[in-house]
TrEMBL record:
Signal peptide: none annotated. This is CBM20 domain-containing protein. GO terms for biological process: trehalose biosynthetic process. GO terms for cellular component: cytosol. In the N-terminal section; belongs to the glycosyltransferase 20 family. It comes from Albugo candida. Residues 62-76 have a biased composition (Low complexity). InterPro entries: CBM20, Glyco_trans_20, HAD-like_sf, HAD-SF_hydro_IIB, HAD_sf, Ig-like_fold, Trehalose_PPase. PANTHER family: ALPHA,ALPHA-TREHALOSE-PHOSPHATE SYNTHASE [UDP-FORMING] 5 (PTHR10788:SF94), TREHALOSE-6-PHOSPHATE SYNTHASE (PTHR10788). Pfam families: Glyco_transf_20, Trehalose_PPase. GO terms for molecular function: starch binding; trehalose-phosphatase activity. Residues 55-76 are annotated as: Disordered. Residues 14-152 form the CBM20 domain.
Length: 1181
């Protein structure tokens, strides 16, 4: 398990053990609570096929185990009891060993499978006394077994012929795209033209993550299903998600190959530079490095830090970009001077005008900061700013403008290959502007504030723009998962994006074809820096002074440092301490409270003033109450503008208890400093922290409290005062372990490694920008993705001899717009609703424009063309809109029903609809509907829709999160109850669909091309396929992978990530393309020469256009083109074509072949064709 974990996380792997790697896989449909075990005659399998597996001794898992989680802490190889196999809900009933088994080369092993129920051995597999055998060679192996069934003799012969067993699963979740082709390959009868080539991928336990890549070609005949790179995407939610998982060991993007070293550069962009700038009376500036910065370069903390040893992250080229915080206004003429003074600190200042800075500050702290901290006062003054459109518009414009200014400064200092790391809610849209200016730059965004719940975040009028700006980054970081969860929920509800857990411990957000990495990692402190500060004379003297002043030897001291803000809960803290002293009067003289308040006088506000006055009054009230008991005040309260570590460290060492009562806090490193300060003085202290602060999630030795419950705070103080030394030491050690192992530099290095791992490929076309303003998006495409060149298509079209043109209908040939408030699906439901409540899909179909119908008719009339329109609509809808086009092939319900426009390609008549599933049993619909109806009654906004041969559970109108949750449960239940039916359960963006298995556009395209090339003997040398939605991706993938050829054009409508190689911008460009092709077809038909017709007279099995001309010339040379022998009556009867609007090449070729041995001229040939067909638009010359 450790080896697999290291591979996923990216740690370096040890040298592989000697021998051949063997992976066992078995298909076993067993009962609930049962587990499959493997025993054999080698030590790693138990030493004997008679070994009795003992579940308590064999590691592994049951059917419910998540194999990727690594729940087993021990190896899955037991030397005495065999190996426990595991499975996952997605892969069941396939079981496999969690770790590879190494076997010496040249060994022949005997093995078999066993079943255990619970913790007891049940039985061995029934093989009539015969054991399985496996000859180990020098190449890695993977078995493909079935429980209680031996491999067939035919399979064994196939193995011997092709060098042993295949290294891939023979039983995998069924692929939908190109199912007919897949079935042929799985049965070992792949055609030569359809042989799959490409890199083989061994799928890992997650069902879609390549664990290893072997760079060799597949054999022409395979006894099992081989998966190429593109086909493996079926197991992932999208091609982009697949690319994020597909890290080969040799790839530069592999986690194990990504490190941070001195050659790397990073630009850290923050609102305020981490330096303290003081303008002196003489006009000079005093600059010091601030102790509380995020990442401290060596040599710039203090003079005493030069002896420190630094990690790799701190040895990089670090450049800071941000504004300068100075207590006085910086004159315009001093800006250049300040730039030079900051250069030794690696800081690049950003100067803002006073008006821009003020408006920007008001928007950040008057709008964003309250919202991000879940503050929405609907009865106060805050909403009036929302209800003033002009004010909000100006504030938002200032926010964007300042973000642009920061981006401009970043571009000035950017060097190729630098990482850009943006921090804080002040610069949320900066990644969008930056990715537009520098498309290949790696941008990270880290948020140090909480993120609000989606219900509160949605109150922002600019909510979508903020999310798009954030998602323009390649990596997003949060300190806590609860903040990341709110962000993900907002993305899901507002933008409709999907996300999932990824190998390595991060979350992948699929956005515009890219996968944005999201990491949860809490920042730490630099303990080595605290060691140095603690040894200074200043700290030692201040500590002694405080000890004497507050009589620390005889009193217990509670300390705290907080900003004077309402969310810090200072008033709640004072009130609780007062209540504690009332309840426990014995502590009134033995307890001392020291509270430090940090104020910001540079940005005063009425709210800050009110909070400050309330805190002072509460302190005075408490001290006055206990004035008669003690002479000095119980609570000592002081206010400071700023505080550094040298001032805090003596206070931390003095205190026995650290008390924090914040009601909303993301990052507070003071508890970390308190714990380590007591490590320095070797005297453990107690942490009492609010459960709403981030430190309570990571410092598990602390006492968590709800600051709104006063009694809980009182009890926590009492527990801390009475805590035993052993418990004090144990809690302290628990927190210390985390603090030492998670320093600030290590935290930064982890994040920067993740950011560097997302490095965009430099391949042209991999990443492409699209859109204007904050709608600008950085899209990720397959290499070579580009705008369709109409002239290139026309040239290829003109020089082709057999063409297939495939079109989607909606938003490809016609524009269909369904707004978010579209109600057409409910119209007429009284008449269209089945009595059980199911809605029959009867949305009005957009009619095809006249120019589209005309273009399709002209293309269908070309004898070289086969034209199909493939749609998810019902056949009645297609016949209604396109039935008037003679010779047009139609495929309804994603190919479940179809009809040929040319009966020569089929034995059926032109108007006869065919079904891809013969004698299909649809009794599954009643069972499916009953299950769907149960979830419909429990999920508001959902309904069941009957769409042709499929049943859909629509949850587009339901709550996104609840709908997605219910859909996942419904998917699992339907998969279980329908396992014996030939149907598949598919999850869409906002629906679940149950439809016949192996039905999609990829399958019907395979059937069309296979029929044309096999039955009619014509090689299709030109294919154009145009579509716009997710269902069309299946035929794009199929054509690019299986039917690749020079004149193949897969085109998606709209510039978006796709498996297609080309794109057009909109439906209008599709219409323009049709117009160009119809002109080419008309010109070709009008000027068709005798030489062109002779090319039709080729052999039936011409396999490639490159050979077509040679073969045609040979045939023409061998034939005597004379007029001596007339056509026979039998031949003449074959030339009669009735009720046809066009004659295809195959029709002409078939007539010519029928006349073999007969000499004739083309004049005689065409004279036998009925003249009535020319009137019907048959052949145009």
């Amino acid at each position: 398990m450790l080896q697999r974990l290291r591979h996923v996380v990216g740690w370096g792997l040890p040298t592989a053990p000697p021998g051949t790697r063997v992976d066992f896989q078995v298909r076993a449909s067993i009962g609930h609570g049962q587990t499959v075990y493997l025993v054999g005659d080698i030590p790693s399998l138990g030493g004997s096929i008679e070994a009795v597996p003992t579940p308590s001794s064999c590691s592994g898992g049951s059917k419910s185990m998540n194999a990727t989680s690594g729940n087993s802490s021990s190896s899955n190889v037991s030397l005495e009891h065999g190996v426990a196999l595991v499975t996952t809900p997605d892969l069941y009933p396939i079981w496999y060993n969690l770790e590879p088994i190494m076997v010496p080369s040249g060994t022949r092993i005997h093995y078999r499978y066993a079943i255990c129920t619970g913790s007891k051995f049940t039985r061995y597999e029934t093989l009539d006394g015969i054991s399985r055998q496996l000859q180990i060679g020098n190449e890695d192996l993977q078995t493909n077994d079935t429980l209680d069934t031996l491999q067939s003799s035919a399979q064994e012969e196939m193995d011997d012929k092709y060098g042993g067993r295949t290294s891939f699963w023979s039983v995998v979740p069924r692929l939908s795209s190109g199912q007919a082709f897949v079935d042929r390959r799985a049965n070992g009868i792949a055609e030569k033209d359809g042989t799959m080539t490409g890199r083989n991928l061994t799928l890992s336990i997650t069902g879609g993550i390549p664990e290893e890549e072997e760079h060799h070609e597949t054999s022409e005949i395979s006894s099992s299903l081989h998966l190429g790179e593109d086909e493996c995407r079926v197991f992932c939610s999208s091609p982009a998600m697949y690319r994020s998982r597909a890290y080969s060991e040799e790839s530069a993007k592999s986690p194990r190959n990504v490190t941070i070293d001195a050659s790397d550069g990073v630009i850290i962009v923050v609102y305020r530079l981490p330096v303290l700038v003081i303008r002196q009376m003489d006009g000079n500036y005093l600059i010091e490095w601030e102790d509380d910065n995020l990442l401290c370069p060596p040599g710039f903390l203090k003079e005493s830090d030069k002896s420190m040893s630094w990690d790799q992250a701190s040895s990089m080229r670090i450049t800071w970009v941000g504004t300068v915080h100075c207590s006085s206004v910086i004159p315009k003429e001093d800006e250049e001077k300040l730039v030079r003074l900051l250069m030794p600190f690696r800081c690049v200042p950003v100067f803002l005008s006073q008006n821009s800075a003020q408006t920007f500050h008001d928007f950040c702290y008057g709008t964003l900061w309250p919202i991000f901290h879940n503050i929405v006062d609907v009865y106060g003054k805050l909403p009036t700013r929302w209800w003033n459109p002009t004010q909000q518009k100006n504030a938002w414009a200032a926010y964007k403008n300042v973000n642009r200014i920061f981006v401009n400064k970043v571009i000035e200092v950017y060097n190729e290959g630098d990482l850009v790391w943006v921090h804080g809610f002040h610069l949320l849209v900066a990644p969008s502007f930056l990715s537009r200016r520098l498309p290949v730059v790696n941008v990270g965004l880290y948020l140090h504030t909480p993120f609000p719940s989606s219900e509160i975040f949605r109150t922002l009028s600019v909510r979508a723009d903020l999310l798009r700006g954030m998602l323009s980054a390649d990596h997003i970081g949060f300190h806590l998962y609860e903040h990341a969860r709110h962000f993900l929920t907002s993305c899901r509800r507002i933008l409709g994006v999907k996300y999932s857990a990824q190998p390595g411990g991060y979350i992948g957000i699929e956005y515009n074809g890219r996968v944005v990495m999201l990491t949860i990692s809490h920042i730490g402190i630099e303990t080595s820096f605290m060691d140095i500060i603690n040894d200074t004379d200043t700290v030692k003297r201040e500590y002694q002074r405080l000890m004497e002043k507050y009589d620390a030897g005889n009193r217990r001291i509670i300390v705290g440092i907080d900003r004077v803000e309402r969310l810090k809960g200072i008033i709640l803290k004072i009130s609780s301490i007062e209540h504690f002293l009332n309840m426990y009067p014995e502590w009134q003289c033995k307890l001392q409270v020291i509270q430090v308040g940090i104020i910001d006088s540079s940005n005063p506000s009425s709210e800050k003033t009110n909070v400050r006055e309330e805190v002072i009054k509460a302190v005075e009230r408490t001290n006055e109450r206990f004035k008669g008991v003690r002479e000095d005040p119980v609570i000592v309260y002081k206010e400071v503008e700023n505080t550094d570590l040298a001032a805090r460290l003596p206070l931390w060492r003095l205190g026995n208890i650290f008390l924090s009562t914040s009601v909303r806090d993301a990052v507070n490193l003071y508890p970390f400093e308190f714990v380590y300060a007591h490590q320095l003085c070797e005297k453990p202290g107690v942490l009492i922290v609010s459960e709403f602060s981030g430190s309570s999630r990571v410092l598990r030795g602390s006492i968590g409290i709800n600051p709104w419950r006063r009694d809980e705070i009182v009890n926590a103080i009492g527990t801390a005062l009475k805590m035993t030394e052993s418990e004090l030491s144990a809690r302290h050690q628990k927190d210390l372990e985390y603090i030492v192992s998670n320093s600030r530099t290590k935290w930064a290095e982890r994040i920067l490694v993740d950011l560097k791992r997302t490095k965009k490929l430099s391949t042209e076309g991999e990443h492409m920008g699209y859109g204007l303003g904050l709608s600008f998006r950085m899209l990720e495409f397959n290499a070579g993705f580009k705008l369709l060149d109409t002239e290139a298509v026309a040239k290829a079209y003109r020089s082709s001899y057999r063409r297939v043109l495939l079109f989607d209908y909606g938003n490809t040939l016609v524009t269909e717009e369904r707004g978010r408030n579209d109600f057409s699906k409910y119209l007429g439901i009284e008449s269209d609703r089945i009595p059980d409540g199911t809605i029959v899909s009867k949305a009005e179909v957009t009619p095809a424009p006249s120019e589209v119908l005309s273009a399709l008719s002209l293309m269908c009339s070309d004898p070289r063309n086969t034209v199909f329109v493939l749609s998810g609509k019902d056949r009645s809808d297609l016949e209604k809109t396109l039935g008037s086009v003679r010779g047009l092939g139609l495929a309804a319900e994603h190919g479940y029903l179809y009809k040929w426009g040319d009966s020569r390609a089929s034995s059926c008549s032109e108007d006869e609809w065919l079904c891809t599933k013969d004698n299909f049993d649809d009794s599954w619909k009643d069972l499916t509907h009953s299950v769907m109806d149960t979830y419909t009654q429990r999920t508001h906004g959902t309904y069941v829709e009957l769409k042709g041969s499929a049943l859909l559970w629509q949850y587009r109108d339901a709550d996104p999160e609840f709908g997605h949750l219910q859909a996942k449960e419904l998917h699992d239940q339907l998969t279980q109850v329908l396992e014996n039916f030939q149907v598949e359960v598919l999850a869409g963006s906002d629906y679940l669909e149950v439809r016949p298995e192996g039905v999609d556009k990829g399958v019907i395209v395979d059937r069309i091309l296979s029929t044309l090339e096999s039955k009619m003997g014509n090689y299709v040398d030109f294919i154009m396929c145009i579509g716009d939605d997710q269902s069309d991706e299946l035929m794009f993938q199929y054509l690019e992978e299986v039917r690749s050829r020079p004149k193949l054009f897969t085109v998606t409508v709209g510039k978006k990530p796709s498996a297609a190689k080309y794109f057009v911008n909109d439906v209008e460009q599709v219409k323009e393309l049709l117009s160009v092709l119809t002109k080419v077809s008309t010109a070709l038909n009008r000027n068709l020469s005798l030489n062109d017709l002779r090319l039709f007279d080729g052999p039936r099995q011409a396999s490639h256009p490159s050979k077509l001309k040679e073969e045609s010339e040979e045939i023409l040379d061998s034939r005597d083109l004379s007029m001596e022998e007339p056509l026979s009556m039998e031949t003449s009867s074959r030339l009669t074509l009735k009720n046809k609007c066009s004659m295809s090449m195959s029709a002409i070729s078939s007539v010519a072949n029928a006349c073999s041995g007969t000499s004739f001229t083309y004049e005689q040939y065409f004279s036998k064709i009925e003249e009535t067909e020319d009137d019907q638009g048959g052949i145009f010359f």
